[in-house]
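Hi, here's the filled form for the chain we discussed.

Project: internal
Contact: R.S.
Residues: 446
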Amino acid sequence: MSLGLELALRAVVIGAVSGVSCAILGCFLVLRRVSLLGDGISHGVLPGLVIGFLLGGKTNPVPLFVGAVTFGVLTAWLTQAVSSRGRMSEDAGLGIVFTALFAVGVLLISRLLRRVHFDADCVLYGSLGVTLDDTWPLLGLEVPRVLFTLVPTLLLVLLFVTLLWKELQLSSFDPALAEATGVSSTLMHYLLAAMVSWVTVASFEAVGSILVIALLIVPAATAQLLTERLRSMLLVSAVVAVVGAVVGVSWGRWLDVDYAGSVTVTLGGLFAVAVFTAPRHGVFSRLWSNFALSLRIASEDVLATLYRREERSGGTATWSYEECERVAGEGIVGRLAMHRCITQALVHRHPDGAIGLTDAGRDLGRSLVRSHRLWESYLDEHFELPPDHLHEPAERIEHYIGPELRERLAGELVRETDPHGRRIPDGEGDSEAEGDPEAKAERPSE
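And the returned structure, exactly as it came back:
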């Protein structure tokens, strides 16, 4: 193995271990909507680092960690104190606190560490490339020294999340319920701040105070777009952090740029991809969902109109294809809606080209008209609306009323006609699943 490839593999391992630690804790920061707390802590711990360095020196990491954790918790406490007593938002309080503490740290560096080798650039921007050559032997391998800090930190994060899983989950999603069940949301907040401080300091030498912010927020935010459950979010955020390290180091080595920066840019790119392609919350999926909804509503408008036409004629009735398409809407949506009705056997074309309902289409049309007239009756009975104000809201809501809600409305109203004197169809065949298997999944029951 060449020396360049070996150094790149070391960078991948360092970036992945550091990224996974940050990503796991970042999930809880994102869920609590305090993502900038990681930013504040990463800057606010600087005075603690300086004090720890003065007390123990670089060779003793314990004072560094103790000082950083102390000032990390202090950042969280001061933020809440300033925002509550100063009658301002929490993000404004955080901006005041972390900038003040960071300024204190800079002053301490410039005043007390003039003749001491304390690399401020390393603390701020990281030195992932430099740490690759600083190795210790382990089982015949040259292991980067920083891993002897990062790996125990990762294990500590996993232990922290495992032991306090229920408490963290409850306090993140419902702080009021957590307090009611005896779980202190405030204590969980400060414990999380302490762990973020610990991870931040452990990652300083590799990724720096500024770049660690991306590792705390971006993988977690990406995972939130891609998942719906907390366990999956933690796993996906860890995977995103690892992928970011592998891809970032790869192209960083190819372009000969700083690894910490290339990893962070890669994470930003992964987040951008998730924004557009996330299965539920992505831009493309939302556009497709909106289009599919428009298509379903247009096709259902055709079925409801044909059913009403059959009601008026007292038997089966047909309509020209052009008239049906005008009901569905002009343009591509109307044409696709008619194609949908035909391919799903909801309507059929007669030899003369006229369009008529199939049995499946008739059942679905009956359900839509029943929903419409039940809702008109409900509005007429419970709200003081003139008769000419009932049709429009019922026309919109008929596409979202499922069988269960229809039966609840029918049981409450106990009437056979709507406010306009038209008969409310019975519930025979009252199921979207008949003739339209997609509608049951698309339309909520209530």
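Let me know if anything looks off before we file it.
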